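Before the break, one more example. Copy the sequence into your notebook; we will annotate it together after we see the structure.
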Amino acid sequence: MAFHNNVLSPILLVLFLISSGAKMCESARAFTIINDCKETIWPAVTPGENFNGGGFTLKPKQSIVFTAPVSWSGRIWGRTGCNFDKNGNGSCQTGDSGNSFKCAASGKTPASLAEFTLESPDFYDVSLVDGFNLPVVVTPINGKGGLPCGI
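Here is what the structure looks like once it is written out:
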């Protein structure tokens, strides 16, 4: 089900590669973050050690791939309306994280979140607990899952 309204129809898409049976399975997970928006967004990740320090820029239709070790637990969200100087200082209209390009803390509300805990099995969700600023989709690839209690 896709979300559409008159104001926001862009999507921050996080493709999450769960590699079943491959050697990569026990040591890392690949994340492809895609900007399916019509404007530039500034994705943020906390903790961001494996994600370009926690902040980066994605132009429309641009994507980037990162890997995170099994045991990583964190949040990914999109920031909008950002303006940063050459030193990485600045702010965003939504999802701002401490007035810095590189994020060390969760973003200010509103910020739609993709949350992950990498274990065996891995857990993820999209959360609006911190509000809504962009549609977010998480698509696992090569994974398997099910509903709790077989529901």
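DSSP finds no helices and ten strands in the chain. Residues 31 and 66 are 5 Å apart (CA to CA). Try to locate both features in your own notes.
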